[in-house]
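Feature request disguised as a bug report, sorry. It would help if multi-protein outputs had a clear separator. Right now it looks like this:
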Amino acid sequence: MNTQGSRRFRWTRLSILVLAAMAMAWLALLLLVQPSNQREWSPDQAQLATAEIDGDSLTIRNVRNARYHSTSQYVVFWEQRHYDLKRLDSVWFVVEPFSDWRGPAHTFLSFGFDDGQYLAISVEIRKELGESFSPWLGLLRQFELTYTVGDERDLIGLRAIHRRDPVHLYPMRASAEHRRALLLDMLQRANALAAQPEFYNTLTNTCTSNIVDHIEKIAPGSMPFSLKTLLPAYADDLAFDLGLIDTALPREQYREAYRIDDLAIAHGDGEGFSAAIRARMSR
């Protein structure tokens, strides 16, 4: 190797070492960032839900029941609600695609009681004032994780009526034992996050990955690994293929049959919302 080539090689190697050192230093600084529950939060995520279970009696504090004028104008009500776990009779899987290409989506669960009450639980980033979701920042320990527990008129109505996103609402197959275990496991996780915050991660700690973890915890082996959990708009296909959606419809028909944003828009977010969005469930 001539002198010029040797010098070029040394400079290239030095540049690679410097860049590697800078990347390692940046990663070390990133790992020093700690999650916190003490920040200036967006009003719709200012409170954390917590639950108390006493036998069949369930009390949840900070159930969100916001009233929306638009996606940015709303009044938030934080409520304490009581439920009788003996009356829990259904679980529903909600999928909200929000992109021009099928892949990105938000997913969450709602639990129904035979007295007409529904309780939705949505795993989300906990936004600070002025923040909005970014999948790239979600990889960099920039968002805390939160379990938003709320009324369906809030969590589903926001997405269907005000964001005008397509929303699919699927009845799930689950035994009474599994319904109860799933609800309580999610609420125990909400309690844990109120005590010890965690960071959201776009790949490993998301809305869908947490639902998968909860289902796998109560029914080990029921949720095989699938790339569809990384593209949540396909999560309903995965649930369908696993027999988790309670439907006799064929694969090419079920998604459209359980799309309910038109019903939500037609009804509005007043009383009777949960019954209205299920008006076609007999199909």
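(second protein starts here, but nothing in the output says so)
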Amino acid sequence: MKILLSGLILAVSAATMAGCHGGNSARPAAVESVQARVVESQQRQVPLNVDSTGTVHARESATVSAQATGRIQKVLVRAGDSVRAGQILVVLDDTALRASLDQAQAAARAAQNEQAAAAAESRLAASTLGRYRQLQMEKSVSPQEMDEVARRSEAASARLEAAQAQTGAARAQQSEARAMLGYTRLLAPFDGVVTARLADPGTLATPGEPLLQVDRAGALELDATVDESAIGAVHMGMKAEVAINGASLANLSGTVAGIDPAADPSSHSFLVKIALPSASQLRAGMYGTVAFANGLRQAILIPRSAVVMRGSLACAYVLDGQQIAQLRYLTLGAAHGDFVEVLSGISAGEKLVDEPSDRDLAGKRIAATSIEVRP
């Protein structure tokens, strides 16, 4: 019994010593330190905007369409071609209209000849009437002869008036035929660019049918729709911040150049035209966004350079009280120049790593090379 008890005491003592020895060997791992620039989130006033979307258009656009029925003989331009004012764009078959013009010209010549003959007859009748009146004063003609001569003179004057009217009508028909013949040559209304070609040779063109779309050369505008609840914040001449996605253009300063007086009854929105500054990247048809300033509001801003993208999620490395970086997911709002609004994930006054690039800084102590309070 004593031998068993002694063995138990020795075993317990050995276990206790082993436990003490193991506890002394466990030490906390050292935290890696990394140098980086640190920035601080700030609460600032930012514009309270009315946001909208729209499409870039030319400030003036024209649809070239036929004014006379005819088969298209030639289309001399394609989409993208630059054109000059008065340049021939489309040629229609003019065979029938040339025949009509020839007929009208022949009718006009016949009417002119008829008018010349009637004028000669009228002059002769007037001269005869004058001689008979002289003879009447000399009592050399009877009243009956005088009446006959007077009636012939009146009839000649009436025929001359009718011939003159017929000549006028023939000339009008000639002018109309000439004008219709001119309609077979469709001209550019102004200097610009062909943006759409809607017909090809061989097609029968009818009056009012669009054949080409031409945009005037020069500055462009963004046509945006603004909801009726926000249209009160928009007025003529105000500045608006425009971003054109297709041209990678941001922070363009546009000017409100037009507001439709009536809302669209189906969408309850107003069309607003924003004049855009000249930019070589801009093209008609591009999609853009516009922001109209409508006062100020409080927002938390951080530099865009502090945002890290993990797939489609926005993150930032935020420092805790021991300056250790923690990866935190953010909900971002509108961009304001080099800064972006944070809707959730960061409070005002927190420090975060600027320009972390692709480094994995989570759990590392950040030794700040500089601390910038921006903006």
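Even a blank line would do. Unrelated, but nice: The CA atoms of residues 267 and 277 lie 29 Å apart.
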